[in-house]
Design a protein that fits this description.
With 100 residues, the protein is of the alpha+beta class. It has a single domain, classed as Arc Repressor Mutant, subunit A (Orthogonal Bundle), CATH 1.10.10. Helix content is 59%, strand content 17%. The protein has 3 helices and 5 strands; from the N terminus they run αβαββαββ. The protein starts with 7 loop residues before the first helix and ends with a strand. It comes from Piprites chloris.
Length: 100
């Protein structure tokens, strides 16, 4: 029996998955930090604020990280994830307004 070395493309897939998980964690952290301060915010405003923070590389007051490109789809996906987890909720009568 001869063992073959692990293929390089498998390493690349693992690295990409790890990078995506880190990006999702940063986005979720940004979303919760922004909503903790604002208490409630329209979903569009939240998306724009998160994208702006990603471009500037600012996680919050005094906390810096490497800026990265994120799209509204990425942010909306994280918002839906946080809604499903129960960290965020929609305001009654105004479903486009999110609360922490």
């Amino acid at each position: 029996l001869r063992l073959l070395p692990q293929q390089r493309y498998l390493w690349m897939e693992r690295a990409e998955v790890s990078a995506l998980e880190r990006k999702r964690n940063v986005l979720c952290c940004l979303i919760t930090r922004i909503l903790k301060v604002e208490k409630q915010l329209h979903v569009d405003n939240l998306v724009f604020r998160v994208i702006d923070a990603c471009q500037k590389g600012e996680l919050g007051p005094g906390v810096q990280f490497l800026s990265f490109c994120c799209h509204s789809v990425d942010v909306l996906s994280c918002i839906l994830h946080l809604l499903n987890q129960g960290y965020l909720r929609r305001q009654e009568g105004r479903p486009h307004v999110l609360e922490y």
